[in-house]
Amino acid sequence: MRSEQNTYTRPPLQPQCSGSMNFRELRIARAIEFASHEINNRTDLLPGITLGYQIHDSCGAVLMAIKGAFQFANGMEPFFNDTDSCSKSAAAAVPALVGDSASTTSISMARMLGLFGIPQVSIGCTK
Fold this sequence. Notes:
Layout: H1 23-41, H2 62-74, E1 97-99, H3 103-114, E2 120-122
Parallel strand pairs: 1-2
Helix pairs in contact: 2-3
């Protein structure tokens, strides 16, 4: 992460990732993608329900994790399912988030997402 001195004469620079790629995190993202496709292609698992996903890279930085969480939260259109079953409505969306594998970034995301009522699970947090 880079930092700059704000002069308030121009908008601040957008946060960007820097450094090397974390291949462990890439494997986890690919595993989520693979599992979603496998579940969606099986008729005996979750019939009538389609899983979707979005992948946002936190770069292991709290600022980037919060940015991704806000993008996720802001992209969700309000939808109220008034049917008896989720499978009766193809438009039903249940937003949830798989958080970062690091506790610091995941906890920061969970605090922000909680304000919007969006649940989060994390694959590797220790606390």
